[in-house]
Write a structure and sequence with these properties.
By secondary structure, the protein is of the alpha/beta class. Helices cover 32% and strands 26% of the residues. It has a single domain, classed as UDP-N-acetylmuramoyl-L-alanine:D-glutamate ligase. A nine-stranded mixed beta sheet has the order 5-4-1-8-9-10-11-12-13, sandwiched between helices. The longest helix has 15 residues. The radius of gyration is 17 Å and the shape is globular.
């Protein structure tokens, strides 16, 4: 199984410690897919600065195909992070060269050679979902806390698996949101709910799964780990609830250490 991950990347810079970790949803998913034994590619843009070199080399070291990473003159995206009670709080964000990134025809052709393509809200890849999906390639999209944002709504008609996070809505309200989103096109819609676990809907039934108890060191990458675990199980044609369990178990590994990945 090989998953194509396209869109945003960044350096997560922890202001209190000065630590810098490569990250960004598609980048993280690619690394977690490799951790689970799959193959992965990352398509995106990095700068010519030291952080860009750090990002590309780190991905190479993890065995990620970086043949379609566009290295552009300028700075790599950086996101400032602080920690509060084991949870990460995002501060200032500089998008750098990623602001001008859009997947080109060669990128789309390359991605269509994968078993599944995944992107996220901030990656400027939503317009590529229509041609990729038209080729019969399954797609996944993570809308974070904004499932009705413009980019998410552009992607969702051409999305097989649609993810978002919502730990505030009660279950009755959340079920209605899942139904609304499912009606827009995806086969399965999944809401991650933090300590409440996750809730999924496939147009016929709702599925629930809790969390895997673990020591929480840093929640950075928890949602991306869940997505990677879910996608790998889904490609193995496992039942939806088994996919949710795989996501929760993979997430529990990630939140046990500092940074999105080691």
């Amino acid at each position: 199984m090989k998953i194509g991950c396209v869109g945003d990347n960044c350096i997560d810079y922890y202001d209190e410690t000065g630590q810098a970790f490569p990250g960004g949803n598609p980048v993280n998913v690619a690394v977690y897919v490799r951790r689970l034994g799959g193959a992965a590619s990352y398509v995106g843009a990095a700068g010519t600065d030291a952080y860009g070199a750090l990002l590309v080399q780190a991905l190479k070291d993890k065995g990620i195909d970086v043949s379609h990473v566009h290295v552009q003159p300028g700075s790599t995206a950086i996101s400032h992070v602080t920690m509060r009670d084991g949870d990460r709080v995002f501060g200032a964000y500089d998008e750098g060269v990623l602001a001008d990134f859009r997947p080109g025809a060669q990128d789309i052709e390359f991605l269509c050679g994968h078993d599944l393509v995944v992107s996220a809200l901030w990656g400027h890849a939503e317009q590529a979902f229509a041609p990729i999906h038209a080729q019969g390639v399954p797609t996944a999209f993570d809308a974070a806390e904004r499932p009705f944002a413009k980019a998410a709504q552009i992607a969702i008609p051409h999305t097989t698996l649609f993810f978002f996070s919502d730990d505030e809505s009660d279950e009755t309200e959340l079920c209605k949101i899942l139904q609304t989103l499912h009606a827009l096109g995806p086969k399965v819609v999944v809401a991650t709910r933090g300590s409440k676990g996750s809730l999924a809907y496939d147009g016929a039934d709702f599925y629930r799964y809790g969390i895997v108890p673990c020591e929480v060191v840093d929640t950075m990458g928890a949602g991306d780990s869940y997505i990677a675990g879910f996608l790998m199980a889904w490609l193995e044609q496992r039942p939806i609830q088994a996919c949710m369990e795989a996501g929760a178990r993979n997430s529990a590994v990630t939140i046990g250490y500092s940074g999105a990945w080691q």
